[in-house]
Amino acid sequence: SNTGFSGPPGMVPVQIRVRQLTISFPDHAYRGGMVGEARAPAPVARPENGRRVGHPADEATGRSSFSSLLLFPLLARSFPRSACWGMGEYLLIFGIAILIGLIVYGSHLQARKRREALRAVADRLGLSFEPANDHTLHRDYGHAVFDKGRSRKGYNSIYGGVILAGRRIRVRMGDYQYTTGHGKHQQTHRISYATFQLPWIGTPDLLIRRENIGDKLIGGIGFDDIDFESEEFSRAYWVKSGNKRYAYDVIHPEMMEFLLKGPTPHVEIVRDVCLILEGWGRWDPDTFEGAPGWFEAFLDRWPEHLTHELENRWEEKS
User: Fold this and answer.
1) Under DSSP, is residue 113 helix (H, G, I), strand (E, B) or coil?
2) pTM metric for this prediction
3) Is the pLDDT of residue 38 over 80?
């Protein structure tokens, strides 16, 4: 159509031609509904100019009116979904989303409950509590577990100084996790630990842990541990140290009896720090609270001649 515009005198008239904007789309999209679903023919509108809007004869030319264009965004958005999804599928997706949300929320509540319980343990022990992530354990300690895998971090840390066996001992306990493997073999390990700074320096390294099948296999090819007079203890425990005399001094008959009573944790002394692990899982709050007492009982059983020797070494180096 042509629209005439007349401005003030002296201006050149301008004519603007407006052409009707049309768009083509398939008949089934125009009608809506599921693919293959039988529907009644769309109603035919007859404007005053006689043009039929949406009539099949007009659609045969692949053209529709501008009024159909206004409906297209709605139809185009809903059509692909209605063609592929039914109410059951939507309910399934909705149910899965709700389930995931509940799992995440439940995990959050459990983590918060654990933090509150461990904070209470720290208060009862007279220690400090820090729930934030700590990525320094593998640098601060030389124990093998802190050097495993990747994405290593400690959290829920309980730390400070306590009096154990008549000596002030620095304590650090908490949760720890690391990741091993890749792809479908990837696994995140979560454990709890306790470390105690020994009151001496220059203490030889020592590993005491329960023996497993792998230990028996490598023992058969010459990588054996330290054996003791007690056959029961030697069968139950794997003991390693660069100083056998020191190992025999620490693990005397009374200490063997104490360790055999179990459940005995994994004990590893490296660079004058004693690490305690009980199994390879996370501890409950009561286990954290009992760890300093267990270490005190362990330290109380060290023979006097050995502690005197270590104390003399401390004084000499001081």
Assistant:
1) helix
2) 0.65
3) no
